Amino acid sequence: MGTGKSPNEKLNLAIIGTGGRGRANMQSTAGENIVALCDVNEDELAQAAAQFPNAKTYVDWRECIDQPDLDGVVCSTIDHTHAMVNVWALNRDLHVFGEKPLANSVYDARVVRQKYLEKKDRLVTQMCVQRHTIPNMARVSELIHDGAIGTPREVHLWCGRLPETSDYLPDQGAPPSNIHWDLWLGPTPYHPYNETYVKPRERGSRCLTWNIYWDFGSGQLGDMGSHIMDIAWWALDLGSPVSVTCEGADYHSASVPSWVVAEWEHPANDWRPEIKVCWYDGGKMPELPGAINGAGMNFGAYFKGDEGSLVCDFNNRYLIPKGDLTYYAPRTPDSVIPDSPGHAEEWIEACKTGVPTRTDFDYSGTLVEQNLLALVAYRVGRKLTYDPATGTCPGCPEADQYIRPAYRDGWVLDA
User: Fold this and answer.
1) 34-87: per-residue pLDDT in tens?
2) How far apart are CA 126 and CA 341, in angstroms?
3) Which pLDDT tens digit goes with each residue over 126-167?
4) Cβ atoms of 414 and 87 closer than 8 Å
5) How far apart are alpha carbons 331 and 141 in whole angstroms?
6) Burial of 296 (0-12, 13-18, 19+ CB in 10 A)
7) Structural class in CATH, domain 12-131+346-357
């Protein structure tokens, strides 16, 4: 695995998506050779080109990804094109640093993961959930693995954001010349141009403008759910679930619901029994232990075990044992999980040396698959039994259209 370059040599990278999160990811990888830049907004592209004047520029990522001198790509496009960029890059033997979520459908997430698994001996991937590098995340994982709450039985996770819902935005006519609207839409059904989809917000991340829509994103489960569920994924070694239920606000044909509460059943693994995973967003929260004031925790996880519980967010953790903790032996300093050098830095080092990354497309592929499966259950309005081997819900054919939505003509996932 790795490029065969020495650690002192630089990677040739393509930055696909240069605004918003793309700008941050571009700066994180700016120490390498940025040889290609791509954005459907020519104004964003020009800003990036001013920093990297020797890079070739593109508006269509399908052309960019075929530039022959590339070692890897940094994918920071709109959510509904993530899977295509990831798969096309892996098919061309390119390393990938990809924004969350990996995909906008269960099927696409599975394809991304499978493509990586086929080439994991020579390609390096990392889903961008940068909070994974916070040391507290590692400490929580150690506490759960090492038995600080005894045998874990369930985990409850929440996101306090209050997203908007709306119809798709009205037609504003032809887009300005700097916006390549058809490329922005990519594989989704056609929607008329509206500048609100593409302009920066006065408050909050730009993605919050468009990821509320079914065709363009997956709401908070895809967005902050990727970060928050990572807490449980690392601590419990989770994979694909075997069932899911999901309730939420009244159904809206255009928008992801303003709140959902989901529950998945996960099978046992080699160190813990089967476990229940629950999610709350849009103002919903689990009932936390009396010793914990959840009012100040906008995001978090609540683990329940036979010997106690643990409540945490990204930076803090609160262990609440039932007894005196005599059953638990903390790790010695030399056995704790080492700090990450940084999310992008970890990926770059792995590309050159072959050391593993912590959120590769195997790990993150099942995480995204699980989260998106909850939205399938919400849309069909019933509990789903899930077969991870086939990626289907036996006995519920109406789920198929949401597991694998149709692509617009001219767009292909696997090429």
Assistant:
1) 999 999 999 999 999 999 999 999 999 999 999 999 999 999 999 999 999 999
2) 14
3) 999 999 999 999 999 999 999 999 999 999 999 999 988 899
4) yes
5) 12
6) exposed
7) alpha beta
pLDDT at 295 over 70: no
Could you tell me which residue, 367 or 5, shows the higher pLDDT? 367
pLDDT at site 206: 79
Classified as helix, coil or strand, 13 is strand
The DSSP call for residue 263 is E
pTM for the model: 0.97
Q: Peptide bond preceding 152: is omega within 30 degrees of 0, i.e. cis?
A: no
pLDDT at 321 over 60: yes
Which amino acid, residue 18? Answer: T
Quickly state the pLDDT bin for 290 (edges 50, 70, 90).
confident
Q: Residue 30, exposed/middle/buried by CB under 10 A (0-12, 13-18, 19+)? A: middle
Cβ–Cβ < 8 Å for 136, 157:
no
Q: Which of 361, 358, 83 is nearest to 231 (CA)?
A: 358
Distance CA 8, CA 390 (A): 43
Q: Vertex 241, ends 237 and 242: CA angle to 5°? A: 140
Closest by alpha carbon to 342, among 103, 118, 131? 131
Other CB atoms within a 10 A radius of the CB of residue 4 amount to: 9
Quick check: 28 and 344 in contact, CB under 8 A? yes
**Token pair in block for residue 331:** 């790790």
Q: Which long-range contacts (CB under 8 A, 24 or more apart) does 374-377 make?
A: 374/221, 374/244, 374/246, 374/260, 374/262, 374/264, 374/279, 375/218, 375/219, 375/221, 375/246, 375/256, 375/260, 375/402, 376/106, 376/244, 376/402, 376/403, 377/244, 377/245, 377/246, 377/262
Architecture of domain 134-163+219-338+367-403: 2-Layer Sandwich (3.30)
- Domain boundaries of the chain, sorted by first residue: 12-131+346-357, 134-163+219-338+367-403
CB burial of 244-265 (b: ≥16 within 10 Å; e: otherwise) equals bbbebeeebeebbbbbbbbbbb
Six token digits for residue 251? 């159904």
